[in-house]
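Technical annex B. To support the medicinal chemistry partners, we prepared a structural model of the target in complex with flavin mononucleotide, based solely on the information shown next.
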Amino acid sequence: MIDLSTGYMGLQLVNPLVASAGPLTESADNVRRMEDAGISAVVLPSLFQEQIELESTGLDLDLNRGGDGFYEALGYLPNLAHYNTGPEGYLERIARIKRAVRIPVIASFNGTTPSGWVRYVHQMEQAGADAIELNIYGIETNPFRSSDQVELDYISLVRQVKLAVKIPVSVKLTPFFSALTHMATCLVKAGADALVLFNRFYQPDFDLESLEVVPRLSLSTSEDLLMRLHWVAILYGNVNASLAITGGVHTAEDVLKSVMAGADVAMTTSALLKNGIGYARHILTGLERWMEEHEYESIRQMKGSMSHRSVADPTALERGNYMRVLSSYQLRART
Ligand SMILES: Cc1cc2nc3c(=O)[nH]c(=O)nc-3n(C[C@H](O)[C@H](O)[C@H](O)COP(=O)(O)O)c2cc1C
């Protein structure tokens, strides 16, 4: 009997396949189907800092009204009051989904700067969330804010969220830090129980006819996994926190690679959007089959086995490898 169980920031999960935040985890019905298909935990779609700020400033939601910058900026955002059912609806959703399933339910908050909204995570905890995933999806466009300031804000935010709740808190990160390992260490020192690598940045496109910037969301492929494997392999054993991979997990092999790099869980959204919720069962069956064929008894046994600490040649994960890869390509091109 193969033991697929894994621990993730103190949560005991029956296997490492988790559904990440996305449209499929919105409804209790879908989450129940995910549980039936073997998914071991779900992350709900995010509630956004802007939604709480909007509500607490008592602004009415006629976003086109008035000409000042704040209203104009809000006009670019979706209808915040109702997005993801809005703040009140979000708490009801947590409670509803918790009643529907036995697997852990992780609420997600998307924010970048500490402010009054942080108390809201406490309400998520009270609504029954088993953990909070804090998504720090920031795109810093202000030329006067240094990377230091941005990072200190993130660290302070994690500290405040941790103070507000007793349940575990994970931080969903961007890969764009110049010293990611140091930043990861700081976030863990600030209290992060897990790090989720990485946010996928949705790159806007240009419409050449209308000369508008248009949002474009493309689903991932397994190619997106590689950068995540690389960083999890480096962080494993270097930070005292659970690690999760999100981005590019589509197959049983992707889950295996994630665990071997050092992830406690492999999260997926695109694969389920493309193939349906039942596809999770296919991934898990493949996972078990592979482990059986390769005589692994447990997930625990393979965790981190391909990490920076464990591989025979760790320089393959470092800068030295860069030159090796480039030169091997040139050699191939000549032959
Ligand atoms: C339509 C859609 C909606 C998403 N909504 C959220 C969200 O609300 N909060 C969040 O943290 N991530 C959100 N994500 C990102 C996913 O949780 C996940 O991190 C990302 O899609 C990469 O994983 P994948 O390659 O398995 O899709 C969303 C992704 C998609 C495709």
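Notes passed to the chemistry partners:
The chain has 13 helices and twelve strands.
Residues 82 and 89 are 8 Å apart (CA to CA).
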